[in-house]
């Protein structure tokens, strides 16, 4: 494991050497580089002789910082700092949930370096389209008064929602305009996803300008898409767009 520092915080990453393009796994909210999808890609990439980069944003996994202090812009900058420190050349971005949004923001910055993009239940603009409309009166008051509140989280500890997270998210929206991605794009989406409406995947596909865009709907798939059959699909999807 290696570390790079950004804004005074140590960010953890693991780079497994191999040929380009480097597969970059971007975790979701409160997830990290040790999740099932990240490890499945690492195992597959080793068999292919392909480089793979796994990373933890600030406040996630073994990186420094506090989760409640972060926001989409910060975590995108974290990922960019790791990518620039650890890699050169072409990249295949694989973004899970929030990592899909971060991947789209990275693609804006990295442009010609992006050789492929895979979104796994991608959640672009979720602070604006999912969190903000669901706020009740007490939560809105808490944001104004305290700058934060907490909600139950089906995947672990209570999740802090901060005013900074929502305001920063509003400044990093991607679905309101065409998204220039000329590389192969694949979107995997479960239709029993309780967190991200499956039609979000169709909206994202419509916004992407490139000609090579495919959406795969998994009728019985949940949000994590981490069952053995889901992991096999993810690996096969990445394998199909990587150079042979």
Summarize the structure.
This protein is an alpha/beta fold and 244 residues long. 37% of the residues lie in helices and 27% in strands. It has a single domain (2-124, 182-241), classed as Alpha/Beta hydrolase fold, catalytic domain (Rossmann fold, 3-Layer(aba) Sandwich).
Describe the structure.
The chain is of the alpha/beta class. It has one domain: Alpha/Beta hydrolase fold, catalytic domain (Rossmann fold), CATH 3.40.50. Helices cover 37% and strands 27% of the residues. It contains eight helices and ten strands. The protein has helices at residues 36-48, 72-86, 98-110, 126-134, 137-146, 163-170, 199-207, 228-241, and strands spanning 2-6, 9-16, 19-26, 50-55, 91-96, 114-120, 148-153, 156-162, 185-190, 213-218. The chain has an eight-stranded mixed sheet, with helices on both faces. A hairpin with a 2-residue loop joins strand 7 and strand 8 (156-162). Helix 1 (36-48) packs across helix 8 (228-241). The two termini are 28 Å apart. The model has no long low-confidence stretch (mean pLDDT 97).
- Name the strands of the widest sheet in spatial order: 1-2-4-3-5-6-9-10
Radius of gyration: 17 Å
Secondary-structure content class: alpha/beta
Name of the CATH superfamily? Alpha/Beta hydrolase fold, catalytic domain
CATH class: Alpha Beta
Residue windows where pLDDT falls under 50 for at least 5 positions: none
Q: The CATH topology is what? A: Rossmann fold
Count structural domains. Answer: 1
What is the CATH architecture assignment? 3-Layer(aba) Sandwich
Strand proportion, as a percent range, falls in: 25-35%
Largest sheet, in brief, is:
8 strands, mixed
Distance between the termini: 28 Å
- Average pLDDT metric: 97
What is the molecular shape?
Answer: globular
Number of helices: 8
Total count of strands: 10
Percent range of helical residues: 25-40%
SSE topology string: EEEHEHEHEHHEEHEHEH
């Amino acid at each position: 494991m290696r570390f790079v520092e950004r804004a005074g915080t140590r960010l953890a990453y693991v780079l497994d050497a191999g040929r380009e393009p480097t597969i970059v796994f971007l975790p979701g909210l409160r997830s990290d580089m040790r999740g099932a999808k990240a490890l499945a890609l690492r195992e597959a990439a080793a068999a292919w002789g392909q480089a793979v980069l796994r990373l933890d944003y600030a406040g996630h996994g073994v990186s420094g910082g506090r989760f409640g202090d972060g926001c989409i812009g910060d975590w995108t900058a974290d990922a960019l700092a790791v990518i620039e420190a650890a890699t050169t050349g072409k990249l295949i971005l694989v973004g899970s949930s929030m990592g899909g949004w971060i991947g789209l923001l990275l693609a804006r910055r990295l442009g010609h370096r992006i050789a492929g993009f895979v979104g796994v239940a991608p959640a672009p603009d979720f602070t604006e389209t999912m969190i903000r409309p669901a706020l009740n009166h007490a939560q809105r008051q808490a944001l104004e008064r305290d700058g934060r509140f907490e909600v139950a989280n089906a995947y672990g500890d209570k999740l802090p929602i901060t005013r900074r997270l929502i305001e920063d998210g509003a400044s990093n929206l991607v679905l309101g305009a065409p998204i220039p991605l000329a590389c192969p794009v694949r979107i995997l989406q479960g239709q029993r996803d309780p967190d991200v409406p499956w039609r979000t995947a169709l909206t994202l596909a419509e916004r992407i300008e490139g000609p090579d865009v495919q959406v795969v709907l998994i009728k019985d798939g949940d949000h994590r898409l981490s069952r053995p059959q889901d992991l096999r699909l993810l690996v096969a999807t990445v394998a199909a767009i990587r150079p042979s």
